[in-house]
Structures are given as structure tokens and as C-alpha cells.
């Protein structure tokens, strides 16, 4: 499984240079990291000057020149991508997995060439000395058959300066997770993606955003200790701000290929810590205002069930498994209940000083959700 980045037909123009920064990463770095994320075992970049060579070394690829020694290789699938194409990992992965006829070229306009061959050295040597579109012509002669077309979405060729903004928008939209609530997808993501676009070109890391979002959420929790609508609404809006900022850390990680298990753990448990803090403060505030301890039981039920559900669903949530219309009904119900759209109910109730009503719902709903998750796991419907 080899990916080769070749010079583009318009290489040298400032708008499509391999060093052009797209969503916080030089284009050549983005292509190499996307290839690694897609599962390519080897990544070569044709020599395009000292600036590109420096980026290639740091991205974990090898520079390919006509003098590069290519050892004998067995049958390989080789994908050739011009240096002005902004790829999504899912597109590159699809090129790896698509069924192909051996020893035949598959061409996606000026965006990619795919071939599975017993002669990978011949393809690599041609890539090292040729440019687009001459490379396709040479390979067509080598394999002696007309190329077949490719029709896969997930890539965007840069041909002008204005294309960079469009490519960044498409990359950002691809970051929206499959299991998103309605309000999260159409409101929170609009804000978080706009923030992520600006943060991508800074030194802010995903972990920094996680800690910031947790701090904002924890700062909002004590506002639920009071009865006044103004206090509760302030807490609810900080809770919403936490949710928006919580989207930025994962977006940054996926956009700049900085995903890590440590980051996923920090993000997931930080989010649940905020939820537990909010439930506990709601319970304590209600207990203080009513001068009775029984609301603490509701807070404990909501908090413990939230932590139990989190422990059972962490792996699935981190991997972003889609739950579609063909999934079991119980699995679809669990996915719907896990949506963070409940925050908007907290906002509405808090505006009237009735956040405690949400605690009642959480004290019933969180344990019910935990039971549903346990039932799904026992029946093999949620991993």
C-alpha cells in the first residue's frame, strides 16, 4: 500500500504550492498525514525543492527522486496524488479498499491515479521523473490499456487562491460526527467550527481546548446553587459554552491529525465530570432552598448513573460508530438519549428558575439510560 505525492500541473503558483497552509497545516504535510491515517504503509513525495523536503522529513514520508534506490517489491496497490489536492482520509482509504482489476489504471481527472501491479518499481520510477498529465500518459503506455474513471468524493483540488477557503470549509464540515443531536449539529457546530477554523493556525492544542471547556463548565455549575432565574440562566449559558468549546478539541485533533487515546480519555471524562458537577449543584441548591435532604438522593442517582453509563459507552463514543435507521431500535434509542441536546431544556427551565425540574428528569432518565446500555451490551447491540 503505497501513496506517492507527485507535482501538480500548476505547481509553482503560490495558491497551489505544496507549502501552502490549509487549515493549519502545510498542504504537503496534510496529504502525508491523511495518507498515514487512511492506512498507507509507505508514503513517498516527489522532490519539489528544499522547502518541501524539510516538510516531508517532519511528516514521516520519504523523498522520491530519479536516483532513489527502490528495492524489489511484491504486488502493491499504488495511489498517485498531485500536490495540489486537499484529501480527506476517508477518500484515501476508499482508494485503498475499492475493487480494481490488476495491471489497469484508474484515473480521477487530475486528482488521483490508482493501480494494483506486480511492477511497483516501474510506477515509482515513472512518478519520480514525470509530472501531471505526462505521468498518466506514460503509465497508460506502460500498462497498455485505457484508464478507467474513478468517481469518489472526499478530495478538493486547489487551482486558485480562492479555493483554499472552500477547501477549509469542506474539511471542517467533514469533522461533524455521525451521532450528533439536531441542535448540536445545526447550532453548536456552527459556532465550534468557526472557532476551530481560527484556532487551526495557532499553537492551541486539543488538550488545551479540553481543559478550557471543562473549566468553563465547572465554573457554571455553582450558579445552580441559587434559586434566582438570573443565576441559573448564567449557569446554563456557561454549560452551553462548555458544550460548544468541547466540540473544538475533537475538531482540532481530527483537522490536524493530533488524535490520541490520552486526548480522547481527557475529553470524554472531562465532559462527564462537568455533567456530574451540574447535577450535584442542582441537587445541593434545591436541598438548601427546600431545607430538606431528599433532593440529594436525586442528584446522587443522576450522577452515579451518568458515570456508570460513561464507563460502559466510552469505547463506542470515542470511535464514533454510526447508528443508522437499520440499527436495532434499542441501540437507536440509546444513541438519541445520549445526545447533548438536553442542554437546551436546561436553558429554558433555568430562565424560570426551575433547573430543579431538570434534575428530576435526569434522576429518572440517567438510570433508565444506564439500564438500556446494559441491556444493549448483554444482547450484543452496543460494544
CATH superfamily of the largest domain: CDP-alcohol phosphotransferase transmembrane (TM) domain
CATH architecture of the largest domain: Up-down Bundle
What distance separates the N and C termini? Answer: 30 Å
CATH top level of the largest domain is Mainly Alpha
Helical segment count: 14
- The total tally of domains equals 2
Rg over alpha carbons = 26 Å
Largest sheet: 7 strands, mixed
Q: What would the principal axes of the Cα set say about the shape?
A: elongated
Structural class: alpha/beta
* Strand percentage: 5-15%
Number of extended strands: 11
Rounded mean pLDDT is 86
- Show unreliable segments: 11-15, 320-337
Strand order of the largest sheet: 5-4-1-6-9-8-10
**What's the CATH topology name of the largest domain?**
Four Helix Bundle (Hemerythrin (Met), subunit A)
Order of helices and strands: EEEHEHEEEHEEHHEEHHHHHHHHH
Q: What helical percentage do the residues reach?
A: 55-70%
Textual characterization of the structure:
With 383 residues, the protein is α/β, with parallel strands linked by helices. The chain folds into 2 domains: 2-157, Spore Coat Polysaccharide Biosynthesis Protein SpsA, Chain A (Alpha-Beta Complex), CATH 3.90.550; 178-378, Four Helix Bundle (Hemerythrin (Met), subunit A), CATH 1.20.120.1760. The chain has 14 helices and 11 strands. It has helices at 27-38, 50-59, 89-97, 120-129, 134-143, 163-173, 182-199, 206-220, 229-255, 261-290, 294-319, 329-337, 342-350, 355-378; strands at residues 2-6, 21-22, 25-26, 42-46, 62-64, 76-82, 85-87, 106-108, 112-117, 148-149, 155-157. It is elongated and about 85 Å long.
Amino acid at each position: 500500500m503505497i501513496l506517492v505525492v507527485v507535482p501538480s500541473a500548476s505547481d509553482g503558483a503560490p495558491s497551489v504550492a505544496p507549502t501552502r497552509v490549509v487549515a493549519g497545516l502545510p498542504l504537503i504535510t496534510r496529504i502525508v498525514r491523511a495518507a498515514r491515517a487512511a492506512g498507507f504503509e509507505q508514503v513517498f513525495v516527489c522532490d519539489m525543492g528544499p522547502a518541501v523536503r524539510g516538510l516531508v522529513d517532519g511528516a514521516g514520508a520519504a523523498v522520491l527522486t530519479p536516483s532513489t534506490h527502490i528495492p524489489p517489491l511484491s504486488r502493491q496497490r499504488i495511489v498517485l496524488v498531485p500536490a495540489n489536492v486537499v484529501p480527506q482520509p476517508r477518500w484515501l482509504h476508499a482508494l485503498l479498499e475499492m475493487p480494481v482489476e490488476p495491471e489497469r489504471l484508474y484515473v480521477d481527472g487530475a486528482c488521483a491515479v490508482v493501480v494494483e501491479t506486480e511492477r511497483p518499481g516501474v510506477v515509482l520510477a515513472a512518478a519520480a521523473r514525470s509530472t501531471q498529465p505526462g505521468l498518466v500518459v506514460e503509465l497508460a503506455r506502460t500498462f497498455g490499456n485505457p484508464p478507467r474513471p474513478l468517481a469518489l468524493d472526499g478530495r478538493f483540488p486547489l487551482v486558485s487562491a480562492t479555493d483554499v477557503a472552500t477547501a477549509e470549509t469542506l474539511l471542517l464540515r467533514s469533522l461533524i460526527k455521525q451521532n450528533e443531536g439536531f441542535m448540536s449539529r445545526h447550532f453548536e457546530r456552527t459556532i465550534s467550527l468557526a472557532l476551530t477554523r481560527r484556532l487551526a493556525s495557532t499553537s492551541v492544542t486539543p488538550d488545551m481546548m479540553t481543559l478550557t471547556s471543562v473549566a468553563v463548565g465547572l465554573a457554571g455549575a455553582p450558579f445552580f446553587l441559587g434559586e434566582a432565574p438570573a443565576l441559573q440562566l448564567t449557569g446554563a449559558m456557561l454549560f452551553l459554552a462548555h458544550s460548544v468549546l468541547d466540540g473544538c478539541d475533537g475538531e482540532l485533533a481530527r483537522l490536524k491529525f493530533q488524535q490520541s487515546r490520552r486526548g480522547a480519555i481527557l475529553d470524554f471524562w472531562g465532559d462527564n465530570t462537568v455533567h456530574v458537577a451540574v447535577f450535584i449543584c442542582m441537587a445541593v441548591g434545591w436541598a438548601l432552598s427546600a431545607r430538606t435532604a431528599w433532593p440529594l438522593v436525586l442528584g446522587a442517582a443522576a450522577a452515579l448513573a451518568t458515570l456508570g453509563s460513561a464507563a460502559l459507552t466510552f469505547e463506542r463514543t470515542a470511535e464514533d460508530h454510526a447508528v443508522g435507521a437499520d440499527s436495532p431500535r434499542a441501540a437507536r434509542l440509546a444513541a438519541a438519549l445520549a445526545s447533548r441536546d438536553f442542554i437546551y431544556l436546561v436553558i429554558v427551565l433555568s430562565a424560570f428558575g426551575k433547573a430543579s425540574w431538570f434534575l428530576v428528569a435526569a434522576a429518572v432518565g440517567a438510570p433508565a439510560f444506564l439500564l438500556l446500555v446494559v441491556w444493549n451490551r448483554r444482547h450484543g447491540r452496543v460494544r
